[in-house]
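hey so i finally got around to running the thing on that chain from the lab meeting. sorry it took forever, my laptop kept dying and i had to restart like 3 times. anyway pasting the input first so we r on the same page abt which one it is
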Amino acid sequence: MSADMSDTAAASPARERRAPLAWHRLAVPAVFIAVVVFFALTTPTFLTVANLTSLLLNNFTLLAIVSTGMTIAVAAGGIDLSVGTALDFSSLAFIVLLNSGFGFATASAGALAAGAAAGAFNAVLIGGLRLTPFLATLGTLFVGTSVQQLLSGGGLPIYLIPGVHIGLASAKLGGIPVPLLIVAGVAAVYGLVLARGRFGRALIAVGEQPAVAYYSGLRARRVSGLTYIACALAAAVAGIVLSSTVSAYVPLSGNAFMLNAIGATFIGTTLSRTGRPNIVGTLLGVLFLNVVANGLLLIGWNFYWQQVSTGVLIFAILAFSFVSSSRT
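ok and heres what got predicted. didnt touch it at all, straight out
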């Protein structure tokens, strides 16, 4: 057999091994395109400028920011069930500081500090007391829920006082809405840290091979603690944007983002060659979930059936991904 024929024979199995992986990575984009085409054909208002603008600004923005933080928590081998608590504490601090006469910059700094405090509490539980991320963040969620109810008189909203105006939600820079620019900025920072930064490499090492990371000299507890503070900071940014949009603090509103953030993060892993959480994949997962919810709303489906349909699609995508990757 000639050398050329040997090379061809050797290359053929390699191509066959790579084929399932290619389909595995195309699953989410293919389903996303199919969903967009379906809704475009079934409802005339889906592709209108007004609907797409509302989808991006009212739905995509907040979930994208929260999910970006969730991505690094999952990449570190954990999960953060308390992102809603960090968002709510940020929103509360932001509105209270503005109502107390402080400017936007000071209120924003206070909001970020309040959100980071929730992350620091998780850091102590996980890095200091060595609780599992699931139990630690679940405990923070319960504590945060009780604290909010106590501070808000049982869950009453706190509205921005008359005369205090926030222009963040409607502001534009270069014709682009500022909330979308905030999404791009948060995603860029976290994406670079995760993909290129030294901390990102340590985080992934701790998440994928904790024993190896430990014996390599990495300070795993410190990395885990910083990870949950960073996750909470992203949620705190979302809290500022949310408060700026509704001009109020609504207790426990952040909990609505937790499950979808987890779902978007795991959908995003299907776009990675190695199955790792990644920012670009997570953002596509967020867009996918919002498009499905928006389209089902437009065709008149009940809210509960919307949740069922979204869950079924997530299961289908993850199942296809698992089957495809297991064959490689």
